[in-house]
Amino acid sequence: MATEEAAGSVNMTEYIQHHLHHLQLSVGDGAFMTINLDTLFFTVLAALTFLVLFVRVARRSTAGVPGKLQCAIEMVVLFVDGLVKETFHGKSRMIAPLLITIFCLVFLMNFLDLLPIDLLPWAWASGHSLAGHDPAHAYLRIVPTADLNTTLGMALAVFLLIQYVGIKNKGVGKFFGEFLTAPFHAEGIVGKVLLVLPNLLLRLIEECVRPVSLSLRLFGNMYAGELIFILIAVMTLGSSLGTFSTWPLGLAQFLADFGWTAFHILIITLQAFIFMVLSLVYLSMAAESH
Amino acid sequence: MIPNLTLVIQGLAFFAVVLMVMKLGWPHIIAAIEDRQNKIAEGLSQAEKARKELADADARVADEIRKARAEAMQIIDKAHQQAAQIVDKARQDAIVEATKQKAIAAADIEAQAHKAREELRGKVAALAVAGAEKILKREIDANAHKSLIDQLVTEI
């Protein structure tokens, strides 16, 4: 019994580790010089899906009664556009398209989390063994947003855009001036000089925290979701129909998987929405003078 | 690597979620989309109707204007005719009146001439009598010779 459990736990640990291992390509020395091929592939896939869908509908769009797909996309566009009009008062025509892209892309990438967690890795491993390789090395993680590289990359892009929008709307002088004069204001030259250091420190911390919190929030949610799917899957790992415990555990796995997948629909949508709205809020704050 | 039980159960759970979404979520989304489609279609058809009504009204107005113009032309024509008639009648009346006046004047002249002639005749008779008196150097009885003189007068 003890040996069996030990074997099972090793098996389980291996399973989890296997699932959390990226398909990687080393392009240089050190851990940094590595490319997560699976993340890149599925990011590009999501981006292409988004582009093909939207560009096709935009090309074929009619001023008459729209089709169902055009209708759905119009609703998304109008929703985001309304949000931008309410919140963003600066001058920039790229904000709404940017936010629609963020929302749809994050949603599509998150959506991969809903697919059965073993489905694509299993297909990938099968392909590997058919090609004569060891399936134990067929790593694959399909959710790009459960990879910190993706979310941090997006958050850094948003960070750069925040600075760009800030400079564009306020001008260089005012933009860097606010580093020293906001958020604490003072009357008189002495007070202003005294507040330069606190203002600068606060501003730097604020600017640095934004991409970190933005990326970690999405990454944490998706990673945790993926991990819970893996843990649910572990319930019937390596069991056979001959064993009695398989049946209640199988039922439990089914119910848990069902429940978590259904709940996850909300989470992926909500996280995509939050990423978009926070980007919008940061951009709006950058565009407005203090 | 063969598909194991875990993957099968995951697949079942996934399809259960798909089924649930199809049954519970999808109808709402489709309803919202169809609602929007209907609204757009309604708006478009109403705009089309309004455009048609406007065109109808335009046509009606143009028709009315054309009719009114034709009527006005008719009235003017009639007025011209009437005016011509009036002028004609006036001219005829004037001609009749002039003819009448001319006739009256002619009659008057005739009467005057007649009167003058009578007068002249009387004077000539008197003159003739006086001449005869002078020629005869004697007094003739006007009364005795009156019938003779009257005869002479009518002869003149």
UniProtKB/TrEMBL annotation, chain A:
It comes from the Bacteria. The chain crosses the membrane at residues 39-58, 94-112, 148-167, 227-250, 262-283. GO terms for cellular component: plasma membrane; proton-transporting ATP synthase complex. It is found in: Cell membrane; Membrane. InterPro entries: ATP_syn_F0_a_bact/chloroplast (IPR045082), ATP_synth_F0_asu (IPR000568), ATP_synth_F0_asu_AS (IPR023011), F0_ATP_A_sf (IPR035908). GO terms for molecular function: proton-transporting ATP synthase activity, rotational mechanism. SUPFAM superfamilies: F1F0 ATP synthase subunit A. Keywords: ATP synthesis, Cell membrane, CF(0), Hydrogen ion transport, Ion transport, Membrane, Transmembrane, Transmembrane helix, Transport. It is a multi-pass membrane protein. GO terms for biological process: proton motive force-driven plasma membrane ATP synthesis. HAMAP family: ATP_synth_a_bact (MF_01393). Belongs to the ATPase A chain family. Key component of the proton channel; it plays a direct role in the translocation of protons across the membrane. This is ATP synthase subunit a. It comes from Dokdonella fugitiva.
Automatic annotation (TrEMBL), chain B:
CDD domains: ATP-synt_Fo_b. Keywords: ATP synthesis, Cell membrane, CF(0), Coiled coil, Hydrogen ion transport, Ion transport, Membrane, Transmembrane, Transmembrane helix, Transport. It is found in: Cell membrane; Endomembrane system. InterPro entries: ATP_synth_B-like_membr_sf, ATP_synth_b/b'su_bac/chlpt, ATP_synth_F0_bsu_bac, ATP_synthase_B_chain. It comes from the Bacteria. GO terms for cellular component: endomembrane system; plasma membrane; proton-transporting ATP synthase complex. The keyword Kinase does not apply. GO terms for molecular function: proton-transporting ATP synthase activity, rotational mechanism; proton-transporting ATPase activity, rotational mechanism. The chain crosses the membrane at residues 6-26. Residues 33-67 form a coiled coil. It is a single-pass membrane protein. Pfam families: ATP-synt_B. Belongs to the ATPase B chain family. HAMAP family: ATP_synth_b_bprime. F-type ATPases have 2 components, F(1) - the catalytic core - and F(0) - the membrane proton channel. F(1) has five subunits: alpha(3), beta(3), gamma(1), delta(1), epsilon(1). F(0) has three main subunits: a(1), b(2) and c(10-14). The alpha and beta chains form an alternating ring which encloses part of the gamma chain. F(1) is attached to F(0) by a central stalk formed by the gamma and epsilon chains, while a peripheral stalk is formed by the delta and b chains. F-type ATPases have 2 components, F(1) - the catalytic core - and F(0) - the membrane proton channel. F(1) has five subunits: alpha(3), beta(3), gamma(1), delta(1), epsilon(1). F(0) has four main subunits: a(1), b(2) and c(10-14). The alpha and beta chains form an alternating ring which encloses part of the gamma chain. F(1) is attached to F(0) by a central stalk formed by the gamma and epsilon chains, while a peripheral stalk is formed by the delta and b chains. Component of the F(0) channel, it forms part of the peripheral stalk, linking F(1) to F(0). The b'-subunit is a diverged and duplicated form of b found in plants and photosynthetic bacteria. This is ATP synthase subunit b.
